[in-house]
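Morning, I've got a small favour to ask if you have a moment. It would help a lot if you went through both lines with me. I owe you a coffee for this, so here goes:
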Amino acid sequence: MIILGLVGSLFIILVFHQPKLRSNPCSFYLITSAYINIVWIMTSPLSRMLATFQLDLSESISILCKIRRSVAYTCSSLSMISIAFATVDRFLISSPKIEYRRLSSLRNAHRLITITAFIYCLIFADMFYCLDIVGLFPSLTCTINTTRGCGLYNEIARLIVLV
């Protein structure tokens, strides 16, 4: 999965970085999704694979635990929404109405991805407070704190992401 994901993302980047396609907003969304997928693959599945050999430092170092989970959740959500934005962009550009076609621009694509990334970073910022290392050595795990505040924030944040 890791190798195929990296190869697929690299091919997407190579194909859509061609000068003819680079100015297309849909290409920008797909390239953004590919870069984000690479970051996600390096933080989430690779970390799980290392954990099977007890080589995952994010299971024993608190700040790595928090960073890995925050980056993984942010990247997976941002990757999916980037592909959804590409779909909406295709709808806008093929619309017979000029008002809709004007909404499809590279400038708007940059703005939308930047704003969305900022929002997702805010949504998943609770990871830095709510996650911690639990257990005794050698069975340490990076898990979410079950306090009422963290639980409530988590539920609300997940609902926002789903909507």
Q: What stands out?
A: Residues 2-162 form a domain with the Rhopdopsin 7-helix transmembrane proteins fold (CATH 1.20.1070.10). The chain has nine helices and two strands.
